[in-house]
Amino acid sequence: MARGCIRTFFTTLGCLTFLLIAALAVWTFRGELGNAYRSVTGREPPEPLVPDSVIGLPSADALRSAERKERQLATGDAGYVRLTAEEVAALVHDRLDPDAREALDSVRVILYPDLVVLDGQVRLDVFGRELLGPLGGVFGSSEPLRVAGPLEVRGPGLLGWRVTQFAILRFPFPGSAIPALVNRLTGRTDGAFPIAVPEPVAEVRVRPDGVTLYRRVE
Known about the structure:
Blueprint: H1 2-28, H2 30-41, E1 54-56, H3 60-75, E2 80-83, H4 85-94, H5 98-103, E3 104-112, E4 115-123, H6 129-132, E5 142-149, E6 151-155, E7 158-162, E8 165-168, E9 171-172, H7 178-186, E10 192-196, E11 201-207, E12 210-215
Antiparallel strand pairs: 1-3, 2-12, 3-4, 4-5, 5-8, 6-7, 7-10, 8-9, 11-12
Helix pairs in contact: 3-4
């Protein structure tokens, strides 16, 4: 019986070792696997389906539309306006620090209930290797970036996008490191993305169908 238990133990250990090696191999060769998928199917590997989300891409038309809605709030022509995901993406991208805007590419914004997510490709020299820590040696010169967090009114004429999740190449950074990384993208010191809005904006709500800005009741 003891011999059978020992055999079972080593069999289980061998299976776990195999699974660990397989997982490491998939991660190490994820680029090659993606290329193989594209060569066979002619399309990108599928992303996980996430319910209750809407994706928006920045554009000049979306920026003009968002600014038009902002003027409606500023002049009192509207008590509230709803910005689409495309308009939010355009505003966020337009109001980044110039160095960060130059370092980002393929930006898209995803809206969830009470959460704004930005995906893109980032040139890592904008952070400096000292902020990336030991992972700096793992990354290339440009990698996929994902940041996420809620929007909140910070004061008259200013929204703050408070980042609670920050990942490069799907490596999540701890909360203590996020403010410094965000500051490198914004050129600020408060650890949040600032978004200028009309001064009368008093409340903001994020839903998949858009971001609603409410004018202060006077």
